[in-house]
Write a structure and sequence with these properties.
5-stranded antiparallel sheet; 7 helices; 2 domains
Amino acid sequence: MNQFTRDAKRKRRRGAAAVMVVVTVPVLIGMAALTVDVAVMYNTRADLQRAADAAALAGASSLLSDSMLKIRLGSDDGAAVAEVAAIANARASAIAALNPSFGADTTVLEATDFRVGYLDLSSATSQLVLNPAAPDHLNAIEVTVRRADGGANGALALFFAPIFGTTATDVTASATAVFDNRVAGYDVSGGWLLPFTIDEEEYEDQLATGPDNYEYDEDTDTVSSGSDGILEIKLYPIDSGPGNFGLLNLPGSSPPSAPELRIQIEEGVDPDDLVENFGSEEIFFFDYDGNPLTYTLSGNPGLKASLQSNIESRLGEVIGFLLHDADGVTGTGNNLEYPVVALRFGRILDVRLNGGNKYIWIQPASFEGGVILRGSGVTTLRDTAGLVVLAR
C-alpha cells in the first residue's frame, strides 16, 4: 500500500470521527441535562414526601383531641366532626409549612389536598372512606403536597430541560396517618398506671349516664367547674356492692406499705412491680389471635383519707386504671380477689377523701403513649387508646 492510500484512509477516519462527535455530543449533553433534572425531581419528591409524612402525622394527632373523644363516646353535639377536621387541617398545615423543598422555603398545604376519613386497617388495599356512616370510625388523615403549575407552591423549575422546550414540571407526594387502636397490651413505663380497679359494668354505665360538672381546657391544661361535653365518672366510692372498687396489691399478694402506695400513686406503678402478677413488665389483654386474657389480682376495697394529697398531686393528668368483672370477685375485706379484664384511661378532675362526701371524679381521656399494638384479631373502635402512625 502506497503512502497516498494510507493518507486517504486516515483522512476518512478523521472525517467519520468528526461526524460521530457532531452527532453524539448533543445526545451526551441531553443525557447529562436529563440526569441533572431527574436528580432535582427525585430530591424534590423526597422533600415533599417528608412534608407529607410530617403533616399527616400532625393532622392525625387531632384524632386524640377531646372533640374526637366526644364522637367516640357518643356525646357529640353535632359539631365535633367539623372541629376534628379543623384541628387536623390547622396542625397539618402548620407542620407542612416548616418543610422546604427544592427552590421553596416552605410548603403550603392546599385545602383540596387534605382529607379526613376512615381506613380499614385490616386491608392493605383499602381506600380512604370519606364521611363514614359511623363518625366514631374516623381514624385517618390523608395529605397530598404538590409543586404544581398554578398551585400555591408553584411548579418545579428545571435546569436543562428548557433546551428541549420544557421549563418546569409537577411533583407530588402523599401520606396517610392513622389512629390505630387495635390495642392488645400496654407498656406501663411513664408513670401513668395507678393501682386502682373498678367494676367494668359500673364504668360502662357511667360512660353513658355520668354528670358533666367539670371542664378541662386543653390549651391551658386546667380543670374548672363547668361543662365540656365529656361525662364524668365517679371512680370512688361506688355503691353497687362490695368489691366494686379496689386498691390492687402490686407486686405480689400482700398489701404494699403506706409509703410504697403513695409512691405508686404519685409516680405510677413501676414496671418491675408487674412481673409477679402479670408475668411481664407489660400488660396484655389479648393474645396474638385476639382472644381476651384475664388476670386474678388480690387487693382491698376503699381508699385511705391519707392518700388525698397524693392523688391531688395528679389533678389534670391522664392516668390508667384497671377494670374487673364484679361477678367474679371473691373474698372479703382485705382478702378480695379481682378478675382484671381491661385497662382504661381517665383524667383526674377532683378528689375528696375526708368527711362524709368522698369522691374521685375523672373523665375519659385519649391516650397514645406506652401502647403496644399486637394481634390482628383485636378490634376496639370505641376505646380511646392507640398509636398515631403512618399507614402509607
